[in-house]
């Protein structure tokens, strides 16, 4: 049996692809004798000769071409690992445009971006704030960070954490009226719940932003459904239980498929995914206290 040694096998592959020991030596940056020695060592360990030595050079007989094909696959895998390791070590350079909701842009992403830029000071992040589910191609955004029930078909990415929601009102108040959700947020899971379950006569005001809803609730204008961390971390508010079932949605970090493998974008997306996962309890509302 041959030694389980890729370093020997790459000499075999180089000779097979170049057709001669001299050409393989030039490709590998070694001398002629080194190639001969490594090929001989592999053939001795295998117990048979890989090559037929002919006047035209080194030829792989048809029955043994599968060995070269397998070696070529190993080479591709080794090169891929090398590229990934290099990409991980390389500092991030250039511009990356990230779009997210207003609450995430103000309360979640800035410290993550600050840590990312301390590690990669040549990286420039442009943060685009909108509660609409934007067309990344139209806005030229590279990455979206969005709470959603599922990832749209035209994006690739992964769910980094879960966003929990709760009902909140001004602390110490007994208000029973509701604040509605309008604009793009009305199509969200919580917007759909309000539309289906809350009597419109009880809705006294509405907004298209959770940040605005929080301020209205803090002024005693009604009960508002908010991302749990927004309500639990605001001393002006108290959580109201029993009004709404638990609602949670995934937080996605995604890009268009044609941008997914661009190194600076892929690394930034991975860094944001890891940063969000690190604060998953906060985002779900499980670690905060009212």
Can you walk through the features of this model?
With 290 residues, the chain is α/β, with parallel strands linked by helices. The protein has two domains: 6-89, Arc Repressor Mutant, subunit A; 96-290, D-Maltodextrin-Binding Protein, domain 2 (3-Layer(aba) Sandwich). Helices cover 43% and strands 23% of the residues. Strands 3, 4, 5, 6, 9, 10 and 11 form a seven-stranded mixed sheet that branches. The chain is rod-shaped and about 95 Å long.
Number of domains: 2
Count every helix, treating DSSP H or I runs of 4 or more residues as helices: 12
User: Would you list the SSEs in sequence order as H and E?
Assistant: HHHEEHEHHEHEEEHEHEHEEHH
Low-confidence stretches: none
Mean pLDDT score? 86
What is the rounded Rg?
29 Å
Largest sheet: 7 strands, mixed
Number of strands: 11
Q: Using the coordinates shown, work out and report the CATH topology of the largest domain.
A: D-Maltodextrin-Binding Protein, domain 2
């Amino acid at each position: 049996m041959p030694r389980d040694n890729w370093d020997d096998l790459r000499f075999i592959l180089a000779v097979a692809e170049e057709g001669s020991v001299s050409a393989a030596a030039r490709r590998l940056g070694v001398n002629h004798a080194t190639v001969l020695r490594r090929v001989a060592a592999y053939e001795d360990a295998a117990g048979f000769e890989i090559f037929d030595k002919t006047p035209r050079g080194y030829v792989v007989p048809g029955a043994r071409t599968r060995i070269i094909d397998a070696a070529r696959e190993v080479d591709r895998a080794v090169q891929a690992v090398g590229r990934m390791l290099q990409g991980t070590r390389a500092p991030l350079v250039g511009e990356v445009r990230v779009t997210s909701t207003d609450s995430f842009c103000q309360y979640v992403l800035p410290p993550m971006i600050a840590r990312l830029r301390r590690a990669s000071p040549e990286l420039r992040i442009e943060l685009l704030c909108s509660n609409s589910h934007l067309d990344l191609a139209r806005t030229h955004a590279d990455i979206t960070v969005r709470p959603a029930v599922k990832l749209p078909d035209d994006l690739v990415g992964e769910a980094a954490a879960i966003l929990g929601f709760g009902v909140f009102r001004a602390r110490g108040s007994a208000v029973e009226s509701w604040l509605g959700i309008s604009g793009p947020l009305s199509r969200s899971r919580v917007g759909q719940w309000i539309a289906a379950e809350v009597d419109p006569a009880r809705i006294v005001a509405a907004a298209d932003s959770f940040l605005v809803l929080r301020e209205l609730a803090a002024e005693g204008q009604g009960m508002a459904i908010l991302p749990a961390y927004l309500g639990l971390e605001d001393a002006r508010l108290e959580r109201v239980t029993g009004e709404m079932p638990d609602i949670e949605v995934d937080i996605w970090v995604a890009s268009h498929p044609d941008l997914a493998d661009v190194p600076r974008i892929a690394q930034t997306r991975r860094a944001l995914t890891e940063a969000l996962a690190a604060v998953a309890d906060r985002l779900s509302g499980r670690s905060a206290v009212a």
